[in-house]
Design brief:
Helix content is about 40%, strand content about 25%. By secondary structure, the protein is of the alpha/beta class. This is Cation-transporting P-type ATPase B.
């Protein structure tokens, strides 16, 4: 089979900026009742910036950013790129002597002779690093404001936090409204935690959130909903989303996302605007009505 996408509905599909893999795609779309929306890069721009660096008691803000940034330089994750960029602006990055990426949790490695860990508190715990209550409280406060906060530790102790912020795409709320008006149930699906997920969901009008999902488990979430009798569309952009996009009854990729996600999907929204997901479902319904 050729992986080349077809432009279907030649008038409307193309006008709407939708690349569709084959004519059967729109047929499956008709019965969709649930739309899973990935958070980072789909509902939000995925272009993150460091909003705050919070050192633990007795630690230096600059060193927290420098060591976290040096380590994150080795990762391609949007959070990592934000932290590495901010650290680079402050000065040259120290070389990384070893590096490990724990998908959906964070990164660890040796920088400048220190054993550094950056990521979710759970990952630091795995390294025997406990977060003091003060830091946990500061983390929670920043998360309630919608930031994604990662913890930074080295040599067995928690050293601080880095808060990164992503912007919600300007059309995401409108897209959610349109999905609802088509009778669809929007659900936010993310590896990020419940607090951040709720903050983003509230701002775009989504009630239902499935948070803290590891990359490998996103496809299982889709399967579970299908077993409950739902017909599921999944909209995503990342390498992390590929298996879920393939598992969904209708996989929709953001054209601004990764090639892996685009290949795993049935349909691509070229300009990466979530309104395209609603357009695709509406188009399929009207096309089939015309045929009948
Ligand atoms: P999403 O599903 O929203 O696209 P991911 O599954 O990629 O998010 O990541 C989930 C969480 O894992 C992040 O919110 C972050 O806390 C942590 N994480 C993942 N990669 C990194 C990294 N390179 N550095 C720090 N934290 C990370
Ligand atoms: Mg994503």
């Amino acid at each position: 089979a050729t992986p080349t996408a077809l432009l279907v509905g030649s008038g409307r599909g193309a006008q709407l900026g939708l690349l569709i893999k084959g004519p059967e795609v729109l047929e499956n779309t008709r019965t969709v009742d649930t739309v899973l929306l990935d958070k980072t890069g789909t509902v939000t721009t995925g272009r993150m910036g460091v909003a705050d660096v919070i050192p633990a008691a007795g630690e230096s803000r600059d060193q927290v950013l420098a060591l976290a940034g040096a380590l994150e330089h080795a990762s391609a994750h949007p959070i990592a790129q934000a932290i590495a960029t901010a650290a680079e602006e402050a000065g040259p990055l120290a070389p990384v002597e070893s590096f490990e990426d724990a998908a959906g949790l964070g990164v660890s490695g040796v920088v400048d002779g220190h054993a550094v860990v950056v990521g979710r508190p759970k990952l630091l715990q795995d390294w025997g690093i406990h977060l003091p209550d003060t830091l946990l409280r500061q983390m929670y406060d920043a998360e309630r404001a919608g930031a994604t906060v990662v913890a930074v530790g080295w040599d067995g102790a928690a050293r601080g936090l880095v808060a990164v912020e992503d912007r919600i795409k300007p059309t995401s709320a409108e897209a959610v409204r349109r999905l609802r008006s088509l009778g669809l149930r929007p659900v936010l699906l993310t590896g990020d935690n419940e607090t951040v997920a709720r903050a983003v969901a509230d701002r775009v009008g989504i009630d239902e959130v499935i948070a803290g999902v590891l990359p490998a488990d996103k496809a299982a979430v889709v399967r579970r909903l299908q077993e409950q009798g739902r017909v599921v569309a999944m909209v995503g952009d990342g390498v992390n989303d590929a298996a879920a996009l393939a598992q969904a009854d209708l996989g929709i990729a953001m054209g601004t996302g990764t090639d892996v996600a685009i290949e795993a999907s049935d349909l691509t929204i070229v300009r990466g605007d979530l309104v395209g997901a609603a357009d695709a479902i509406r188009l399929s319904r009207s096309t089939l009505r015309t045929i009948k």
